[in-house]
């Protein structure tokens, strides 16, 4: 438990079960949505992570998604849900936009973490889908809460790594944030800009031409 606390993970009911073990259990179980709902209702941290692994995204109702995101109490549970059941939901884009405007810390983080996941995994989405996220990112960058601003930064970086056009657009957003009066926005902009304009990203575009 002390190890979890060192990484800022302080859920209400932790057991200390490792993620690799939970993933092995999930592979053995397969998709089992009824079990996922029962695991989530337990309130146990690792049971909820396992729930996100075995839930059926197509079976998740809107009310269930809202209940789950509203009950998240740590950044790791937030990111696991966003990378599994929320990512594959037909409501993913609508929810990431909605949640990014929420005042609750982990709900807001979920909005931007889901943006980042979609930017990585939805290869077929048009650029305009992600360009429409920039105003949300600019607004979210002013949030001083560490777990929120890190997710905002993550979303901006992942959108900017999709292709060269989005890289230029994301870098422009990052430059604007880097000179903002707000210290949180400046951090988001400067940190994102280092990666978006770094040699590794530039090499990727040269190779793709």
Short description:
The protein has helices spanning 2-6, 19-29, 33-41, 45-54, 62-71, 75-83, 92-99, 105-121, 127-131, 134-140, 146-160, 164-178, 183-196, 199-208. It is mainly α and 209 residues long.
SSE layout:
Blueprint: H1 2-6, H2 19-29, H3 33-41, H4 45-54, H5 62-71, H6 75-83, H7 92-99, H8 105-121, H9 127-131, H10 134-140, H11 146-160, H12 164-178, H13 183-196, H14 199-208
List keywords for this structure.
209 residues, mainly alpha, Leucine-rich Repeat Variant, 2 domains, 14 helices, 69% helix, disordered N terminus
Alpha-carbon Rg, integer:
18 Å
In DSSP terms (H or I, runs of 4 or more residues), the helix count works out at: 14
Which stretches of 5+ consecutive residues score pLDDT under 50? 1-7
Instruction: Please tally the β strands and state the result.
Output: 0
Shape estimate: globular
Q: How many separate domains? A: 2
**Amount of beta strand:** under 5%
Structural class: mainly alpha
What's the mean pLDDT score? 91
Compute the separation of the termini in Å.
48 Å
Largest sheet composition: none
Question: Helicity level, as a percent range?
Answer: 55-70%
Q: Which series of helices and strands comes N to C?
A: HHHHHHHHHHHHHH
